Amino acid sequence: MSAREQDGPGAAEAVIKRWDGLRIVGQRDFPGVARSAGAARRWVLGILDGHPTTAETLETLELLVSEVVTNAVLHSDSAGPDGLITVRVGLGDGLVQVDVIDDGSATSVPAIRTTDDDSLSGRGLSWVDRLACAWGADHDEVGGAVWFRLAIGRPSGRDPLSSQ
Predict the structure, then answer these.
(1) Neighbouring residues of 139: CB distance < 8 A, sequence distance ≥ 6
(2) In this predicted model, what pLDDT tens digit does every residue of 29-56 receive, in sequence order?
């Protein structure tokens, strides 16, 4: 898997295509501050409460929501005064999709970074790439979005925190 990045006018079309077959079950704005990662994580898990999902899916979802929201806070203009991060959750065809939409950045675009065992950061999108069944990043002059999909209810046998 790799990120599919869209620029300019193609970003809107990418969003429409990405949501085909899914229904939005929740959308919420969070302030562009560090504590929003935990609040977003709890909110997303609450949406799936009562849906048939495995414990593994919930753990992976928790990790990936935290990582992507944290990245939006750290690397986008949403961290500025009055900045917002929007989290959208969709379900359909055995999948859960999460979009994290921010105010974009003139100096930063989402990318997988090379890390080593001593790196203190930079692993978030690598985890998304490894654990999600699909993911991508869209950006245009209005802002950016990082999204990912997970299969729900289908154990993969992978430990979401394992480095192997």
Answers:
(1) 5, 6, 7, 11, 104, 109, 110, 145
(2) 999 998 899 999 999 999 988 887 888 8
